[in-house]
């Protein structure tokens, strides 16, 4: 990292108040990492983040937190590292000696994991092992608490619904298989060495900061562009897929809470409400003043505008009968997870889990944010969102 205010962890340790808790976040540049960093800084933590080398700027989601004179009060430090580079993780862990590690870094796109399965395993399966080994070999076993970003994708093909902590796993992608290893190695280091290590089995969570290749953000970005006359049609894969979608800000609060308990255990975090991809499209379109009508079925399904709300952005640029969404068979996955629905009763009872955002609020927040982006800075919209052939 060249142009961000980075101190070495050793420098920072001498500058900081002794009482502040120290957290290390991997994946701090991602959706969850950015919200978690905000939460921990608000709580007075000193936050260290691992940032990997890329050819471009990848700190866009946390730029507002960087800089010694901002609200973070100079308590945020970034370190170059990579989950596939054990030496970098050991070096950073030794320097920071964190009270809490949040392992959020991952190749997190399920469809991409079919294209890069080996890399996905290196990052998502062996990455957590490297972090746990660093904790153990540095003698931090009884000092450092560890959070692993586990996933509802672990349930994959299960026929049990809703899914809870006791539901058997049946992974259905290289991503899910790698996360399965990470889940069990986290349990193993808890049982074998007494490390406070736990898995948050989180169901899908979204936000205006969601990556543009995930279906919710792909939909809100594309429909916002369509409403502004910048794009004609949105291509999608499996419209029938059912997901339990929450807001990322609610979910990172649970990640923190899981590390504040008397003993470590694994928790499902989910809203307990399920919607289809098709319903998400309709909801987002409705926020933009478009009412849709579906025709065809399966691989030929498409949605046309059947009503336009007067005065909406869409009314100025779209026309009745316009096809705004259609299925592209190329966007189906080799093996699909058709339906996920979480039962977060344990987290509700033991951690006081009450999500603050409803599905409708989530859709509205994402649509409004992307409409503002399309109207003010259309060139800033990621290419993945506008390229019609992008991967599902
Ligand atoms: P994102 O894809 O938004 O963020 C992933 C983060 O990991 C980014 O900061 C990325 O860096 C970083 N990263 C990727 N590869 C490496 C690597 N080799 N070394 C170091 N860092 C790397 O994911 P989310 O924030 O949505 O998810 C956070 C975690 O939670 C992930 O592990 C994901 O699998 C898991 N999860 C997510 C759910 C969701 O619905 N969001 C649900 C359940 C689990 P860069 O910015 O450079 O790309
Ligand atoms: P998912 O999220 O695979 O559940 O993983 P994604 O948004 O990619 O897909 C959700 C469902 O929508 C279907 N779908 C499409 N998906 C994408 N990305 N693009 C499309 O065009 C499209 N059309 C239909 C998919 O087939 C799927 O059924 C997310 C990630 O955040 C993981 O890291 C995390 O572990 C899980 O959620 C829980």
Give an account of the 3D structure:
The protein is α/β, with parallel strands linked by helices and 392 residues long. The protein folds into 2 domains: 9-206 and 245-273, Rossmann fold (3-Layer(aba) Sandwich), CATH 3.40.50.720; 215-244 and 276-338 and 358-380, UDP-galactose 4-epimerase, domain 1 (Alpha-Beta Complex), CATH 3.90.25. Helix content is 37%, strand content 17%. It contains 13 helices and 15 strands. It has helices at residues 9-15, 31-42, 86-96, 110-113, 117-137, 174-193, 215-227, 248-258, 277-287, 313-317, 345-351, 359-376, 383-386; strands at residues 22-26, 46-51, 76-80, 100-103, 145-151, 197-202, 205-206, 234-236, 242-243, 246-247, 267-269, 275-276, 290-295, 302-308, 323-327. Strands 3-2-1-4-5-6-11 form a 7-stranded parallel beta sheet, with helices on both faces. Strands 8-15-14-13 form a 4-stranded mixed beta sheet. β5, α6 and β6 (197-202) form a beta-alpha-beta unit. The longest helix is centred in the N-terminal third of the chain and has 21 residues, at 117-137. Mean pLDDT is 92; it is low at 1-17 and 387-392. Bound molecules: NADPH dihydro-nicotinamide-adenine-dinucleotide phosphate and guanosine-5'-diphosphate-rhamnose (GDR). The site of NADPH dihydro-nicotinamide-adenine-dinucleotide phosphate (NDP) has 26 residues, from α2 and β5. One of its GO terms (molecular function) is NADP+ binding. This is GDP-mannose 4,6-dehydratase. Residues 24-366 form the NAD(P)-binding domain.
């Amino acid at each position: 990292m060249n142009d961000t205010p980075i101190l070495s962890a050793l420098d920072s340790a001498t500058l900081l108040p002794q009482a502040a808790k120290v957290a290390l976040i991997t994946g701090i540049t991602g959706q969850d990492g950015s919200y978690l960093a905000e939460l921990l800084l608000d709580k007075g933590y000193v936050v260290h983040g691992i940032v990997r080398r890329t050819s471009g700027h990848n700190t866009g989601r946390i730029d507002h937190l960087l800089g010694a004179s901002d609200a973070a009060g100079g308590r945020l430090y970034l370190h170059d590292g990579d989950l596939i580079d054990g030496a970098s993780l050991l070096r950073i862990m030794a320097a920071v000696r964190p009270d809490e590690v949040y392992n959020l870094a991952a190749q997190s796109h399920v469809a991409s994991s079919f294209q890069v399965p080996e890399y996905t395993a290196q990052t998502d399966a062996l990455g957590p092992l490297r972090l746990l080994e660093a904790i153990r070999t540095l003698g931090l076993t009884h000092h450092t608490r560890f959070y692993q970003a586990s996933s509802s994708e672990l349930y994959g093909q299960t026929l049990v619904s809703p899914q809870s902590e006791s539901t058997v796993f049946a992974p259905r992608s290289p991503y899910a298989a790698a996360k399965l290893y990470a889940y069990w190695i986290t349990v193993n280091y808890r049982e074998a060495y007494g490390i406070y290590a736990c898995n948050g089995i989180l169901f899908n969570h979204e936000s205006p900061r969601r990556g543009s290749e995930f279906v919710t953000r792909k939909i809100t970005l594309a429909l916002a562009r369509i409403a502004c006359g910048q794009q004609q049609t949105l291509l999608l894969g499996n419209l029938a897929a059912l997901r339990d979608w929450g807001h990322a800000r609610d979910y990172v609060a649970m990640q923190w809470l899981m590390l504040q308990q008397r003993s470590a255990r694994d928790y499902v975090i989910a809203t307990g409400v399920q919607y289809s991809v098709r319903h998400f499209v309709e909801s987002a379109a409705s926020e933009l003043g478009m009412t849709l009508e579906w025709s065809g079925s399966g691989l030929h399904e498409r949605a046309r505008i059947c009503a336009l709300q007067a005065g909406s952005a869409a009314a100025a640029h779209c026309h009745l009968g316009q096809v705004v969404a259609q299925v592209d068979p190329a966007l189906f996955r080799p093996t699909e997870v058709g339906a996920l629905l979480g039962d977060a009763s344990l987290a509700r009872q033991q951690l006081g889990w009450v999500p603050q955002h409803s599905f409708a609020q989530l859709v509205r927040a994402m649509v409004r944010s992307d409409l503002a982006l399309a109207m003010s800075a259309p060139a800033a919209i990621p290419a993945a969102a506008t390229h019609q052939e992008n991967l599902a």
